Amino acid sequence: MMKGISRFYSRSEIRKKILSFYLIMTLMVMIISGCSNIKNKEKDTIRIGVSVYDAHDTFITQLMDDFNSYADTNVTVITYNAGQSMKEQNNQMQEMIDGGCDVICINLVDRTEPEHIIDLALKYDVPVIFFNRELTGEDLRRSDKFYYVGSDAMESGIMQGELAAEGILDDSLHIDANGDGYIQYVMLQGEAGHQDAIVRSEYCVETLMNSGIKLDRKGLAIANFNRTQAQSKIEQLINAKTEIELILANNDDMALGAIDAYINIFGDKAKSMLPAIYGIDGTIGGLEAVKTGYMCGTVYNDKEGQAHAMYDLAIALATGGSLDDLGIEDEHYIRLPHTKVTLENVNDYLY
């Protein structure tokens, strides 16, 4: 009967086995450490999802250009165009959540229908920054992770009214061309029922009347903040022989559309035929029109400031950083001020 064979190791062999064991353990630690570093790197990457109501809106496009310019190398911004469809924007909200966005920025298609977006944000505990199109305070306060970044629509309306009043009272501009003591005007308004459009229009007219200006409204045209639609509306009024001494537009795109209408109808004589035209937003096109004299003035809506504030807030929310120095008011709002722009100071905003 064979006995079991036993093996005795020499000291040198034992040392080799111990060394091999330590090498294997060191390698395992390195692998685990490497995996840990990969995970940390993934956590350091911030994903910001953005849905805009319409990518063809000039102001929104320029605001997003500024927003993207602030993004660091470890920040990924994914932008969606809702194309003026609330249903599409609701779907995009789900996509951004499914895509692992740390923060979501929403430029609402319809400020009166944010329920689905809010419900999703609450369900998945995702911070949301609403911007440019303000939802109701009641909706915004449904979570301490909801914020609004934008401006004060009332302020912009008042400033536009002040600009127009200053122009009317300046005899050199001869805005009251027929000398009847009344200013025949047209209001180019944004979307029907849109809060900012209504507020801008009402406070602009109220400011003019409080300045002692007598007004004679010749038209209230809904042009949906759109340049082409504004051109069509003003062309209709011109062709109907409507007397127009002043055009007040809720945004620069519509003001530029009014200019397009005169150019299309009067050609080279258009500039001499133009009424006084005032816009709001201070887009590049609007500022250039002020500089060349086609527009009398615009109200600068600080898109750079809003973009920067929105970006800083998004990063703070994504990283758990401090919100103390971001200028938040009433726990949910960041508002940037407007400024009046005329020929005298337009270069300060263009260059």
UniProtKB/TrEMBL annotation:
GO terms for molecular function: carbohydrate binding; metal ion binding. It is found in: Cell envelope. GO terms for cellular component: cell envelope. Residues 48-320 form the Periplasmic binding protein domain. It holds the Pfam family Peripla_BP_4. Belongs to the bacterial solute-binding protein 2 family. This is D-galactose/methyl-galactoside binding periplasmic protein MglB. It comes from Butyrivibrio fibrisolvens DSM 3071. The lineage of its organism: Bacteria, Bacillati, Bacillota, Clostridia, Lachnospirales.
